[in-house]
Amino acid sequence: MKTHTIFGGFWFFIITIILTLLQLCNGKVFMEYIGATGKPVTMDEVPIDDGIDFHFILSFAIDADASGNPQNGIFKPYWASSLTPESVAAVKSKHPNVKAMASLSGWSLDSTTLRWYQPENSQTWISNAFKSLKSIIQTYNLDGIDIDYENFPKHNESFSYCIGELITYLKNQSVISVATIAPYRLTTIPYVQLFAAYGGVIDYVNHQFYTDKVRTTEAYLEDFQLRTAQFDKEKVLPSYEIDGRGIQGEAFFDALHILEENGFDINGIMIYSADASASTNLTTKFYYEQKSQEFLLNSSRV
Ligand SMILES: *[C@@H]1O[C@H](CO)[C@@H](O)[C@H](O)[C@H]1NC(C)=O
Ligand SMILES: *[C@@H]1O[C@H](CO)[C@@H](O)[C@H](O)[C@H]1NC(C)=O
Ligand SMILES: *[C@@H]1O[C@H](CO)[C@@H](O)[C@H](O)[C@H]1NC(C)=O
Ligand SMILES: *[C@@H]1O[C@H](CO)[C@@H](O)[C@H](O)[C@H]1NC(C)=O
C-alpha cells in the first residue's frame, strides 16, 4: 500500500512535469519593454496572464559610461532605478511564467546617440560583454538578452560576429535561456546578416513594425509578409507602440486576425512600452497589454 502511494506520487510528479513542459512549448509569448524613460515604472502594475510566457525587457544595458563613451564591451544597466533585483525576484515569484531580459543599447543615453562600433579586438569585446552581462544577469535574476542596436557605421561586419558569438556563449554556458533581436525599418540589413549566421540561437524577432509607416490592416499584412520572409516565419512577432507610430487602436487587433486568416501563426506579441502605458490617463490603462494576452490565449485554443 505504502509503495503504491509513493509510486502514484512519483507518476503524478512526472505527469505534472510533462504537462508543464507541454504548456511551455505550446505557450504564446508576450514581450514588453520597460524602463527606458527612467520614470519610476514598476512591473507590479502591468497585467500578467498566467497562461502566457511573459517577458519583461529591461531597457537598457549599455556598453558605455554615464557620458555615453564606449567601454569596449563592458555593459552597465541604465534602466529605471525602480526596476531593482528585488522587484524582478518579487514579480517572478508571484508569477512563475514571467521571464526578464536585458535589452542591449537602445537609441540613446541622455543626449548621446548610441551606435555599434567595430571593436579593436573582437575577442576582447566578446569576453568583456560576456563577463559584464553575466554579472548583471545574475544580480537581477534575468533569463535572456534582447539586441537593440539602432545605429550602425558603414563597415559593420563585426556586429554579426560579436553579437552572434556573445549570444552563443551566453547560451552554451547556461547564463541565458532566451535571446531576441529588435530590428527596425532602417536596420534590417545588419540584423538579417546576424540572423542568417546565428538564427539557431535567436528565439524571437521583435521587429519594430511601428517604424514601418504602416497604419492600415492591409498594409500591416503586406509588411508582415515582408518581415517574415526576411527572418523566420515562426519567430517574427507582430508589435505595437503605445500612443505611438504605426497602426493604432483596435485596428491592431483587426490586423492580428487578418494575419491569422492569411495562414500566419501568431506565436507572440511585442509591445513598446510599459512606460508609455503607465503614463496614459485613460481608464483603459494597460488595455493593449491585457487584450494582446487575451488574443494570444484565444488563438492558442483553436
Ligand atoms: C552595415 O549596415 C548597413 C545598414 O545599417 C548596411 O547598409 C551595410 O550594407 C552594412 N555593411 C556591411 C559591410 O555589412
Ligand atoms: C560556446 O560558445 C563559444 C562562442 O561561440 C565557443 O567559443 C565555445 O567553444 C562554446 N563552448 C561550448 C562548450 O560549446
Ligand atoms: C492626459 O491628460 C492631459 C491633460 O488633460 C492631456 O494634455 C494629455 O494629452 C493626456 N495624455 C494622454 C496620454 O491621454
Ligand atoms: C477572445 O474570445 C472571446 C470569446 O470568444 C471573445 O469574446 C473576445 O473578444 C476574444 N478576445 C480577443 C482579443 O480576440
TrEMBL record:
Sequence ranges assigned to domain GH18 in this UniProt record: 28-293
The UniProt keyword set, sorted, is: Glycosidase, Hydrolase, Membrane, Transmembrane, Transmembrane helix
Key word S-adenosyl-L-methionine present: no
> Of which family is this protein a member?
Belongs to the glycosyl hydrolase 18 family.
InterPro entries in UniProt: GH, Glyco_hydro18_cat, Glyco_hydro_18_chit_AS
What lineage is this protein's organism placed in? Eukaryota, Viridiplantae, Streptophyta, Embryophyta, Tracheophyta
User: Which Pfam families does the record match to this protein?
Assistant: Glyco_hydro_18
Which terms does the UniProt entry file under GO BP? carbohydrate metabolic process
In its UniProt record, a GO molecular function of this protein is: hydrolase activity, hydrolyzing O-glycosyl compounds
The UniProt transmembrane annotation reads: 6-25
UniProt name for this protein: GH18 domain-containing protein
Annotated source species: Lactuca saligna
